[in-house]
Design goal:
heterodimer; A: mainly alpha; 84% helix; elongated; B: 224 residues; alpha/beta; five-stranded parallel sheet; 40% helix; globular
Chain lengths: 273, 224
């Protein structure tokens, strides 16, 4: 029976990538991952009452400070450079005579896609690794048990404020990124190509509908939720050994990058294509 | 044991046994001080994890104010654990919080007490441990990883005391501590016990000379 089955398989089936066990494991892992993410998101949503407790609010404020305020330096640098490069390239492609066309391409490329994506990548680089490793080490040191012993539910104290804080901070950072990128890009074009800064900004303002702004915010919000939940999930999964910590951190970062790109594609497909 | 005794005990162990060890049945009455002596580190760790519910025993029950810890649902368990002040040997501090934040975490979490209201009490308790002035200020701003194990134990003790629990369980509080420091800590613990006539103090003690100095109304030994 085995021989017959083997001979019936087409060549591509015997390819390592397409072996059933290789195909199955990533699929099951993906299901487990999404189940974990949705569990944490549902838990957060149903335990928002934890914010009535002062130490939970303190963790939330710290998370906003770490993910949002402390990231502003890195966000500013990258937004400045990205804005200058993208708008410079658009102007050199379309020419300086048509600020409306520049503004339109700018909206498509920067506001809809690259802005939210680059902001999310900066948040992943800074906060995802930090959150996953912090939670993993807390678990290994028995601090989660210590919290339980004090009658403090670790998810209420550690997860709810982290997920909400990181989500709101990511959405805010996305808006900040877009403002810096657009303004800096047009300043560079104004200085290098002698295109009026006022006219450029005006053409963007005319094209920028509330829908565009909402979509960027939605992306920032969704990316923030996913990054936060994924980082917490991978951090909490570490139970046995210190050697699992770097593995969890790397997995959290990689999974976040992949998920953010997939979600970006889905949102773009649903709302813009 | 009569039903009235059962009602009177605030904390009780009934047939608690693991694969290797067994705790004698015990009732802890208001005002009582009890020692649970352990012959080895393994025993002590098992008792600690069993009492705190981290590793429930194979059989038996831990009754806190008439309710079983092991049969409590996940939602009920925090409220039961909160009834007891736990003082772990390693401090059980949260590593990303400074000493002051660690100290006030449970009391501000459960009772909503403002930090300013606790300053006087913390200063008073640390003064009993001969930590005052600049030394206390320096201690309060440290992260747990920078603290000496003795300091971590002090903080865990004061943190539990700030909650003013009726039951307090100390895990080997004098192990590896110099005799003078152990005496000071014991005085603080004894005075804290006397503050409330209904308070129950339980010590998990390893087999070491200072353990004999810990005053207790009753002593239980873990059975292998």
């Amino acid at each position: 029976v085995r021989e017959r089955t083997t001979t019936r398989r087409p060549d591509w089936f015997n390819n390592r990538v397409l072996k059933p066990e290789t195909l199955g494991r990533p699929f099951v892992n993906m299901l487990i991952y999404w189940r974990g993410v949705f569990y944490l998101l549902r838990y957060t949503l149903t335990h928002l009452s934890a914010f009535t407790i002062a130490p939970v609010r303190a963790v939330f404020e710290r998370q906003i400070y770490f993910t949002g305020i402390q990231a502003l330096g890195a966000i500013s640098y990258i937004a400045l450079i990205a804005g200058a490069i993208i708008i410079g390239q658009i102007t050199s492609l379309i020419g300086s005579a048509s600020p409306q066309a520049t503004a339109r391409v700018l909206l498509w490329v920067l506001v809809r896609e690259l802005g939210p994506l680059l902001s999310a990548i900066i948040v992943i680089a800074r906060s995802s690794a930090a959150t996953a490793s912090e939670l993993a080490l807390m678990g290994l040191r028995g601090e989660l048990d210590s919290l339980r012993r004090m009658g403090i539910e670790p998810f209420d104290y550690l997860i709810v404020p982290r997920i909400t804080g990181m989500t709101l901070a990511t959405a805010a950072v996305t808006v900040y990124f877009l403002i810096i990128a657009v303004v800096s890009g047009f300043v560079v074009v104004w200085l290098t190509n002698d295109v009026s800064f006022g006219v450029s900004i005006e053409s963007v303002v005319v094209l920028l509908t509330p829908f565009e702004v909402l979509m960027s915010l939605l992306k920032g919000f969704v990316f923030g939720l996913t990054i936060a939940a994924t980082s917490c999930l991978y951090g909490l999964r570490v139970e046995s050994s210190v050697t699992d910590v770097p593995r969890a951190v790397t997995s959290a970062v990689l999974r976040n990058v992949i998920t953010v790109f997939v979600l970006d594609a889905i949102i773009t497909y649903l709302f813009f294509l | 044991m009569t039903p009235s005794d059962e009602q009177a005990s605030v904390f009780a162990l009934r047939g608690v046994a693991g694969h290797r060890f067994r705790l004698p049945d015990s009732e802890f009455m208001p005002g009582q001080t009890a020692r649970i002596t352990c012959a080895s580190q393994d025993e002590r760790l098992w008792v600690w994890k069993t009492l705190t519910g981290v590793s429930p025993p194979v059989k038996g029950n831990l009754i806190i104010r008439g309710r079983s810890l092991y049969r409590a649902s996940a939602a009920e368990r925090p409220a039961l654990l909160r009834e007891i002040g736990w003082v772990p040997q390693d401090g059980g501090l949260v590593s990303n919080l400074k000493t002051w934040e660690n100290l006030i975490l449970p009391v501000s979490y459960h009772k909503g007490t403002a930090a300013a209201e606790l300053e006087e009490e913390v200063t008073r308790l640390f003064a009993r441990l001969a930590v005052t002035g600049p030394a206390l200020r320096a201690l309060m701003s440290c992260l747990p990883d920078r603290l000496h194990p003795l300091e971590q134990r002090w903080i865990a003790t004061v943190r539990a005391m700030l909650m003013r629990p009726d039951i307090i369980v100390y895990d080997a509080p004098f192990s590896g501590v110099e005799r003078d420091h152990a005496q000071t800590l014991l005085r603080l613990i004894t005075d804290f016990h006397r503050e409330n006539p209904a308070r129950v103090s339980v010590f998990l003690l390893p087999n070491e000379p200072f353990s004999e100095r810990v005053p207790a109304d009753v002593t239980y030994a873990v059975e292998s």
